[in-house]
Design brief:
This protein has 766 residues and is α/β, with parallel strands linked by helices. Helices cover 40% and strands 16% of the residues. The strands form five sheets. It has a seven-stranded parallel beta sheet, sandwiched between helices. The protein has a six-stranded parallel beta sheet with strand order 19-24-23-20-22-21, with helices on both faces. Strands 3-2-1-4-5 form a five-stranded mixed beta sheet. It is globular, with a radius of gyration of 28 Å. The N and C termini lie far apart (72 Å). About 5% of the residues have low confidence.
Length: 766
């Protein structure tokens, strides 16, 4: 056992020119020695140094780290300080956030780091099992650690220590039984942090969380009637209003919400009874069997203690959807999921998400209830996805590595060789597809199956049959239902069906086989006949968008009813928006903004602000060129420039002077499925700038096929969807905080632009 009392502790962080230790360089190192006891952390000697790189550093990296060209040019090389750093770090216990990355880089430069290490990322994974994000900035915000010089090495090294202190305090506050069980499981492991967990830190490290305040609509109960679409005002908390109304309804009701996060919010308030699908239910028996498996590798141990903490400390333990498995643990999901659900025939008011609803429909459950659906756009996507297929290179790799992972040694050692054969077969198949179709230089593109040359398509189909045969041989031993379904769907992909569009999506790092139904009216009609009555609720702009959904979802028998929350009757088509004058500014003009004009919207008096540029490429170039100027007044979060796209939305609320630089496509993508935008629901800003109208192009194989269903593809398909996209973006950033809304696009000169202008005029004070 390591004698923790004899160790020297050092929190370390490095900034690099890239993520590859072989070809990239260290630009800065910062570390601080410290002591840790029951009283907390005491900082001691610190060290910080910038190094001159041999190669030119990209503007993206300079923007991310905050290191200037001048600093790099005047610095000495890493080689000149290697021996001194080696002497300081030789036998110390290194601490850091994702410290393995830093250690690998330093070892690649010849340093011998022979002491143990503690990763605060490992601790955060299990001490905060439901926390939405584990990046350092988000954890700093959670624990109230000041954000000074973010992404500078010494500042991040010190911040990691404060996060460590907060995590240990939370662990100290866990029930004694839980702490004993965690320490017992960790006992035979090589994790150094297990010794720190015995330190009896006092108090709570958890930063108080703000309570969400929702409008009270109890004075506006609605009596929902079948075959009606209820269209609500922008800014109305539709979910709260619907629940208030359904709580007092006489008949049994099933409320279907777009995602499980919305359902969790209701369940925490005991507003209704939950209904979950099998894939969402916690299987305690399976977990117990996994927990007692011997031997357990390090990843399995980390996963088990994460679930233990969730069991002991979470407000609910029936549904596993609130456990954060996005960064780590997804490969073990099958060890905790799959409990068989039962139909709840007693409770009057039940809520489920769309995923669970489709599972219930297959079983014939809840058909005698009134069904109330929230979100027509979400329902459309769910209907497309329920019959569509997406077969990717990464997905089959994940399924196989869940059985045995050659990279880490995790999994069933007895199946190592057969899994490796399956992985090799996948690499050969998808590699061949990429070699036959990819452009030079490689790029991102989509290609319909019918557009592929017959001889090339024949080679791909032949290769798929060989790959499928290999998967069948693998599955004889591993017996995976998911791999079996993957094989079947791969075979179906090459069989032509009248109502389906099939296409391949390729990028330099991925290859995906897609197929989706074009006409979903038959499927939706079957669903709407399933329940006693069906009701839809949403907030849609203009009659034209409702007419689109009537056509797309087969809702010809449904009528739209505007929901009025006040006594005044609507004077015109748009009065249902119900927006009270608040004096904020709207400007919509043709043309694009110049860079100097864009920079004015980035000044402190406009913050917090979101600037949506025409493309990810424009975001990158603008960010790289002006990052030094922007960072003087703003906390900048840029798409492809802030160390991860998934977390920039979550980190936006950390500072009052946040500036978000992204594309409208990025925001719209985050509002689909399980994206970050869906989880957040809303991102209040003072200033919102859109540098283009979010039009979808017919170049996408699926949209091109669907548009042909409409008599006038532009008027009846493209225009309503563009308006809907604009509405979703505005709604995401819309709040009482919004003061400035600017939209710039040359298309505003077109005759059809009146559709957008009329919409915009209704959501701001003229």
């Amino acid at each position: 056992m390591i004698n923790m009392n004899s160790l020297k502790y050092c929190s370390l962080d490095i900034e690099t020119s890239g993520f590859d230790p072989v070809k990239d360089e260290i630009l800065e190192i910062g570390f601080v020695f410290f002591t840790l006891d029951e009283k907390g952390i005491k900082l001691e000697k610190e060290y910080s140094k910038v190094f001159r790189p041999q190669k030119e550093v990209s503007e993206t990296i300079l923007a991310l780290t905050g290191i200037t060209k001048k600093e790099l040019e005047s610095a000495e090389s890493f080689e000149q300080h290697r021996e001194g750093i080696q002497e300081k770090l030789q036998d110390v216990c290194l601490v850091g956030h994702n410290i393995g990355f830093d250690i690998k880089f330093l070892q690649g430069l010849g340093l011998k780091l022979e002491g143990p290490n503690i990763d605060t990322l490992d601790l955060a994974q299990f001490i905060l099992p439901t926390h939405p994000s584990y990046n350092l900035e988000n954890l700093m915000h959670y624990f109230g650690v000041p954000h000074t010089e973010a992404h500078r090495a010494l500042a991040d090294a010190k911040a990691a220590l404060r996060v460590l202190e907060g995590l240990l305090k939370i662990f100290a506050g866990f029930p004694l039984k839980l702490k004993k069980e965690v320490l017992n499981i960790l006992k035979p492991s090589g994790f150094v942090f297990k010794e720190l967990l015995d330190i009896r830190a006092k108090g709570s490290g958890r930063k108080p969380q703000a309570t969400e305040v929702k409008a009270n609509f109890s004075e506006y109960p609605l009596e929902f009637k079948g075959n009606i679409f209820y269209n609500f005002s922008l800014g109305v908390d539709i979910l709260t209003l619907v629940v208030k109304s359904l709580e007092t309804a006489k008949n049994k009701t099933l409320l279907v919400v777009p995602n499980i996060q919305l359902a969790f919010g209701l369940l925490r308030e005991n507003k209704c009874e939950p209904a979950y699908a099998s894939e969402q239910l916690f299987n305690e028996e399976a977990f117990e069997a996994f927990k007692h498996k011997q031997p357990l590798n390090s990843d399995e141990i980390k996963f088990i203690i994460k679930i233990l903490v969730w069991q002991y400390t979470n407000w609910q333990t029936k549904n596993i959807s609130d456990i954060n498995l996005s960064f780590f643990g997804g490969q073990f999901r099958h060890h905790i999921a799959g409990q068989k659900p039962e139909e709840n025939k007693i409770s009057k008011f039940i809520v489920c998400d769309l995923e669970a609803f489709f599972a219930f429909k297959q079983k014939g459950w809840y058909k005698n209830r009134k069904a109330v659906f929230l979100g027509l756009g979400d329902l459309e996507k769910a209907l497309e996805g329920s019959l569509g297929q997406k077969l990717s290179w990464s997905n089959i790799n994940f399924l196989l590595k869940r059985i045995y992972n050659p990279d880490t040694g995790a999994g069933d050692e007895n199946l190592k060789s057969i899994v490796e054969e399956g992985l090799l077969a996948g690499d050969l198949f998808f590699g061949l597809v990429s070699a036959l179709l990819q452009t030079n230089p490689p790029g991102f593109f989509q290609k319909k199956l019918e557009e592929i040359e017959p001889n090339i398509l024949a080679k791909i189909q032949s290769a798929s049959e060989s790959f499928s045969a290999k998967l069948e041989a693998v599955n004889i031993l591993v017996e995976s239902p998911e791999i079996s379904a993957y094989r079947q769907n791969l075979g179906k992909f090459f069989i032509k069906e009248d109502n389906y569009v099939r296409w391949l999506e390729l990028s330099p790092k991925s290859c995906v086989f897609n197929s989706s139904p074009i006409n979903i009216q038959d499927l939706s009609a079957e669903i709407f006949k399933f329940n006693r009555e069906t009701v839809f609720c949403d907030c849609l702009p203009r009659l034209q968008v409702w007419e689109y959904f009537q056509k797309r979802l087969g809702l010809k028998d449904f009528k739209m009813q505007f929901v009025e929350l006040g006594k005044t009757k609507p004077k015109d088509l748009f009065s249902y928006l119900g927006i009270k004058p608040r004096g904020f500014r709207l400007e919509a003009r043709p043309g694009n903004l110049s860079d100097p004009e864009l920079l004015k919207f980035c000044e402190k008096n406009s913050l917090p602000a979101a600037i949506l540029l025409p493309s990810a490429l424009k975001v990158k170039s603008f960010y790289q060129q002006y990052h030094e100027t922007l960072k003087k007044s703003a906390f900048v979060l840029a798409q492809n420039g802030s160390a991860g796209n998934s977390r920039i939305l979550r980190n936006f609320t950390i500072h009052e002077n946040s500036l978000l630089l992204t594309s409208d496509k990025f925001i719209l993508k985050s509002l689909l499925g399980k994206g970050a935008g869906i989880a957040l629901g809303n991102l209040p800003v003072k200033t919102l700038v859109l540098n283009r109208l979010p039009f979808e192009q017919f170049t996408h194989p699926y949209f091109e096929a669907v548009s042909k269903q409409f008599e006038n593809p532009f008027e009846d398909f493209s225009l309503p969807r563009a308006l809907m996209s604009l509405h979703f973006v505005v709604k995401f950033f819309y709040s009482p905080k919004l003061e400035n809304l600017f939209i710039f696009d040359s298309k505003l000169n077109k005759p059809y632009a009146r559709v957008f202008l009329e919409y915009l005029k209704q959501i701001v004070d003229k």
